[in-house]
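Quick one: structure tokens for this chain, please?
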Amino acid sequence: MAIKGPLTGARILSFGSAHAGNYCAKILGDLGAEILKIEAPGRGDIIRDLGPFAGDPELAIGSYIVAMCRNMKSVALDLYTESGRRAFHDLVKASDVVFDNYRAGVMERVGADYDTLKRISPRIISCSICGYGSSGPYSHRPSFDDIAAGLSGMSSLCGERGGGRPIRSPVAIADISAGMQAAIGIISALYQREHTGKGTRIEVNLLDVCLSVMDTHYAIYYLTGKVPGPQGSKHPTTPLLGAFKCKDGYVVLGPSWPRICRVINREDLIDDPRFNSPAKRFENKELLEDALERELEKYDREAILALFEAEDIAVGPLNNMEQALADPQVIHNRATITLEHPAYGKIQNIANAIKVQGIEGTPISPPLVGEHTEEVLKGILNYSDEQVKKLNEEAEKHSEELIKLHARRMV
């Protein structure tokens, strides 16, 4: 049984390639939308090439597919063939949203741009995530998360205080944030259409998204005129917020001035003229944090956690991933799920973080390339066996050229 939720009844044709597009589609699918993942025959989405892999080497499943492609049906269509494009346009008439994650211009080349789509279905909603926007000096360039993070200034904030080689974020912030904002845009457009009866066009790009999630850092720059450098493991503006070393690891603290001084028997810091006002604590932030860390290094991590929790001071362990999965709150939240895949058996997944009362059903495991093509064409469009056969034959004839086209990574 597929997921039944607040978006049940909405059908989305997803050209969601790479990370951002699939993350958006996963959110919508977890909320009940029917996601038809349109992929190139044979090759499929570029994230199918990303490991590590598990299972039969000929049908190995990669980590990105496992992470992001649940609740999707894979429909293999070659939009460069007449039958493939016709099938796609037929699906547009029976769908609510067409979503893509390609660079500007790709959807126009395959007859899937908004101007074409709205002539087929005035109610259609079109949403695109690209690197830089649909116009401007960089619009034609390919982009990925790390490139947008670098261009926006985000990567310049990653690293230890004092500078040195920039450190990339281990989390794809640009891709994930773009996926979230695209999902918000799609849901908003679906709501708007209930009132107007008309579709619309939505655009999100990685560069703008990076700038938007850095709003507080840019506010600091606007107010002070100073270019922020690497932030290290502490909060840039709030003293005593961040990761602090203890005897056997690290803990992460929330702001708790001045109570934390009493708990660790450093009440002298409260009236210290270097720290006795918010402005002075900010001015001497590093001195204060270094003094606190020297005290915390005298304690084991578990002792700090127990002591601070007893005093209602915000604190948590800095876990590795194995420790995080074993944490009692993670277990209580049912933050992991198990999918049953017909080829690979049980697959572990991180659950949807949006908890909506009344969602029912079991998540569908990630699909193989084209696994649902015949089911969708016959079930939704009432295609005959002959029509499906013709579509497959045309795709096969064009397969070598399609491989060359997709070798350019048109994202």
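Residues 173-196 form the longest helix (24 residues).
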